[in-house]
TrEMBL record:
Carbon 2 of the heme B porphyrin ring is defined according to the Fischer nomenclature. It is found in: Cell membrane. The keyword Iron-sulfur does not apply. Keywords: Cell membrane, Heme biosynthesis, Membrane, Transferase, Transmembrane, Transmembrane helix. It comes from Paraurantiacibacter namhicola. It catalyses: heme b + (2E,6E)-farnesyl diphosphate + H2O = Fe(II)-heme o + diphosphate. Pfam families: UbiA. Its main location: membrane. It is a multi-pass membrane protein. Gene3D superfamilies: UbiA prenyltransferase. One of its GO terms (molecular function) is protoheme IX farnesyltransferase activity. This is Protoheme IX farnesyltransferase. GO terms for biological process: heme O biosynthetic process. GO terms for cellular component: plasma membrane.
Amino acid sequence: MQTAPAATNAAPLPAEWRDFFALTKPRVMSLVVFTGLCGLLAAPGSINPVIGFTAILCIAIGAGGAAALNQWWEADIDAGMKRTAARPLPAGRMQRTDARDFGIVLSGASVMVMGLAVNWLSAVILLLSIIYYAVIYTIWLKPRTPQNIVIGGGAGAFPPLIGWVAVTGEITAMPVLLFAIIFMWTPPHFWALALFVKTDYAKVGIPMMPVVKGDTSTRRQILAYSVLLLPLSATPWFIGGTGAIYGVSALLLSGIFLALSLPVAFRRSTENDTMKPEKRLFAWSVLYLFILFAMLVADRLILAEGALS
């Protein structure tokens, strides 16, 4: 088992609230909160608005706590990467122990409030998501295998499942499919980024796929996952869990995803260029998930309105 990186020698400056907020990775949290909210809104049945808000707040706080623990553990790794060197810990704006304690408090509070205010099944799944990201992915998978983001993709796939279970109190095929869609989306999304920041990962010894297996293998796997994502994204429609609004949107959006993955997959030389195909795919992959889950909610609301009319 890898031990936590050694503390930096620089004396940390007094941390501000902005530094603690930065520990929660607000950009990542926005996607987590959005997919969790969509899972909650798309679930059958209803939930008291206050309880629903509490559930989404707990998902956000839990994700923030896991992110803080991730940065506590990886402070020295972050310091060696251009993309992450300005974070509070590598920049010397915060004590390592403060980040750790902040992460533990947020994680524990989110699980307890979820269990007491919503239901204990959603609280258990939230706890599993925190452990998955902060321990299984961060400590175990990431420094050991180029498949880290494949297996670790489950960490970001939990929110819609949690949101759904917060309403229904049970796990059924639909929330599992939502989990699977994000799980399948994660590798091409993250590897597109890894292709144009691979030197950072190589510098700090993280075995990301482009570093260990090379660009060609990574590009082929991006295409393979993009191909699989297309039918999987439409499966909720195929099994009758959604209407045509979601189904047609899923096929269109995933078709664009696949089309953008083709120039990435078949490139043979990237010398002296700006990696535009990879950056386009990465940018679209973020937008893709937002639109796909927005269509899931739109489909549910329109079907519900039609049933009432």
